[in-house]
Design brief:
Order of helices and strands: EEEEEHEHHEEEEEE
Strand order of the largest sheet: 3-2-6-9-10-5-4
CATH superfamily: Electron Transport, Fmn-binding Protein, Chain A
Structural class: mainly beta
Shape: globular
Number of domains: 1
Largest sheet: 7 strands, antiparallel
Bound molecules: flavin mononucleotide
CATH class: Mainly Beta
CATH topology: Pnp Oxidase, Chain A
Number of helices: 3
Strand content: 35-45%
Length: 194
């Protein structure tokens, strides 16, 4: 099959998609959806989110230097889309969705109660890359629902959730496991670990 060359564009899919919560007090708390995010380092655990400067959340996070990544399941799909379609400059997204908050353990930003995993982040630097600013942050705490931790092995079982992914305009719910990390190296020593 022949291939066609397209104009260069942001074409890395699938992407994770999650709701970010931010703000230092109830009158400032805000939620927004992000898919331009990822892991930068495991030690110290470091991640990034990329935010357009015109987002209401951009200013809040620039001032507070904190945010929370709330992993999102198919049960929260409508809320996730809503938080990505409406700006906190004109509405209160906690009031206009069924989402509720509690306090982060380490950061002042709120965490979403209905999200199974809350990743608390402290911003270390902000870099501009044209249309978006990249907020590089250290992960300072991870809150996870008790039932997602195996009582015997202490292993985190994220595969019990239908987490969401975003691919070229569509939301997907993760479901089918098609392989395990290291499956190609059954009888060989794995040299490339996480
Ligand atoms: C699926 C999805 C992914 C998005 N990803 C990003 C992103 O990575 N960065 C960004 O700046 N905006 C992103 N947006 C747009 C913002 O979520 C949207 O502009 C939102 O209304 C901003 O809210 P705020 O003004 O209250 O901060 C995304 C929206 C959707 C629906």
């Amino acid at each position: 099959m022949s291939k066609r060359n397209l104009k260069p564009g942001a074409m890395i899919y699938p992407l994770p998609v999650a709701i970010i919560s931010c703000g230092r007090s109830a009158d400032e708390y805000n939620l927004f959806t992000t898919s331009w995010m990822g892991t930068l380092s495991s030690d110290p655990p470091t991640c990034y989110i990329s935010i357009k400067p015109n987002r209401h959340s951009h200013q809040i996070i620039k001032e507070s230097m904190e945010f929370v990544i709330n992993l999102t399941t198919v049960q929260l799909l409508n809320e996730l889309d809503f938080c990505g379609m409406n700006s906190g400059s004109s509405i209160n997204k906690f009031e206009d969705t069924c989402l509720t908050y509690e306090f982060g353990k380490v950061v002042c930003a709120p965490t979403i109660v209905e999200s199974p995993v809350n990743i608390e982040c402290s911003v270390k630097s902000i870099m501009n890359f044209g249309s978006h600013d990249m907020f590089i942050a250290e992960i300072v705490n991870v809150k996870i629902r008790e039932d997602l931790i195996d009582a015997n092995s202490n292993r985190v079982m994220l595969d019990k959730l239908q987490l969401l992914a975003f691919s070229y305009g569509n939301y997907h719910a993760l479901g089918e496991v098609v392989g395990k990390y290291g499956m190609s190296s059954k009888n060989r020593t794995i040299v490339n670990n996480y």
